[in-house]
């Protein structure tokens, strides 16, 4: 899986039911009554052939999808909490992210993970301007905004304005460093450990680490 | 792995490089906004199949060196509003890079 492109070209239809609009607009996936896209048709054809030829079973495919959907930012938070409490692990994580995650039983597959560390001098944030590359093995599925054109174009052009909109103020004396995930690497931001957490164990620390802090658009929760 | 399987990395960390400009048909993973701009090699990420070949079902060989190149935001966007030290790291394949014109190597 060299890239995680989104090949679903979703349309935002404005439905008008019975001639009147809903007074309470809500986000929903558009119905796909208008046929399959080329990529959807290709996926179905490939899947059916793999099953027909006995390469994979439908059950195996279902299980793989279920396992992928079960991944969540708690895996990433576990990695961050370990790095906060174990300096040797932190060093290994910064040197080779994928290998360090494997130590915690998190299989990154073929993905090469680069971990970028926030310090007093540098704040890191991650974007994929070309598609929506994201460390799914570690954080689960990306949030919708991560895949939006607005985030993808503005994160590189005016990162500080984007951060402010997430409620994250980075002082001018701290460098904001954006990482554009354009090719074969995936990125995890290692946030700074909040003050006032001395002596906390890993589980308690991990509860402070949200998904957005590991993308770099937010900071960890304060104790 | 044959000798032709992988092209050597032409640049080292700290070297100043310029991203090739221009355009072409097909699938390219070098973002528009850094083409023609100069940055500094941050690290060599390893060697990977050429995405411009992989996109068309070919084997992507020989593999190419992939770098992380660090750019100053102010070099990419002349009207960039943030501090001078703000930067962006972008993954770029070897064949998109040339040595920079000037010889000065300053860290971004």
Descriptive account of the structure:
The complex is a heterodimer of chains A (about 220) and B (about 110). Helices cover about 40% and strands about 10% of the residues of chain A. Chain A has a two-stranded parallel sheet. Chain A has a two-stranded parallel ribbon with strand order 2-3. Chain A is globular, with a radius of gyration of 20 Å. Chain A is α/β, with parallel strands linked by helices. Chain A has helices spanning about 40-50, 60-70, 75-85, 85-95, 95-105, 135-140, 145, 150-155, 160-165, 200-205, 210-215, and strands spanning about 110-115, 120-125, 175-180, 185-190. In chain A, helix 3 crosses helix 4 (about 85-95), helix 4 crosses helix 5 and helix 8 (about 150-155) packs across helix 9 (about 160-165). Chain B has one domain (about 5-100): Roll (SH3 type barrels). In chain B, about 5% of the residues lie in helices and about 30% in strands. Chain B has helices at about 50-55, 75; strands spanning about 15-20, 40-50, 65-70, 85-95, 95-100. A five-stranded antiparallel beta sheet of chain B has the order 4-3-2-1-5. The radius of gyration of chain B is 15 Å and the shape is globular.
